[in-house]
Amino acid sequence: MTGQPVLIFDGDCGFCTTSVRFAQRRIGVRARVTAWQFADLAALGTTRERAEHEVLWIDRDRVYGGAQAVAKLLITAGLPWSPLGFVLRVPPFRWVAQGLYRLIANNRRRLPGGTPACSPSLGRR
């Protein structure tokens, strides 16, 4: 992959869709944004299983997932967001961010905008 980074999210999940729209409006996403359901994941160097599990930031043939994808989004957004993105890449903040991301991702069906599509019973994590 070359050119513009790509942000991949779960387009069936209302919470994920709302979160991405918020980031586009308030933070300014400097990437092509697409739901994994409409992306050529193999061409982007990732899998459906990974895309179902976490948000992905794909840049120069490197795939960042979860909290690190969010960190990359913030870094590329520029000021005032980039310092927070850099902090999220450094231990122990990195570990805390990943734990918090996983907690939210595992419970997104219970959060505002969550839908039945976010339920682990449908094979989603």
Describe it.
- The chain is an alpha+beta fold and 125 residues long.
- It has one domain.
- 44% of the residues lie in helices and 13% in strands.
- The chain has 6 helices and 4 strands; from the N terminus they run βαβααββααα.
- A hairpin with a 2-residue loop joins strand 3 (56-59) and strand 4 (62-65).
- Mean pLDDT is 89; it is low at 121-125.
Element layout with pairings:
Blueprint lengths: L5 E4 L4 H14 L4 E4 L5 H4 L3 H6 L2 E4 L2 E4 L1 H11 L4 H6 L5 H14 L19
Parallel strand pairs: 1-2
Antiparallel strand pairs: 1-3, 3-4
Helix content: 40-55%
Q: Helix segment count?
A: 6
Largest β sheet strand count, sense and barrel closure: 4 strands, mixed
Based on CA atoms alone, the radius of gyration comes out at: 14 Å
Shape category: globular
How would you state the average pLDDT, rounded? 89
Unreliable stretches, pLDDT < 50, 5 or more residues?
121-125
Strand content: 5-15%
The structure class reads alpha+beta
Extended strand count: 4
> Order of SSEs, N→C?
EHEHHEEHHH
The order of strands across the largest sheet is 2-1-3-4
Number of domains: 1
Question: What is the terminal-to-terminal distance?
Answer: 27 Å
What is this entry, summarized?
This protein is α+β, with helices and mostly antiparallel strands.
Keywords:
125 residues; alpha+beta; 4-stranded mixed β-sheet; 6 helices; disordered C terminus
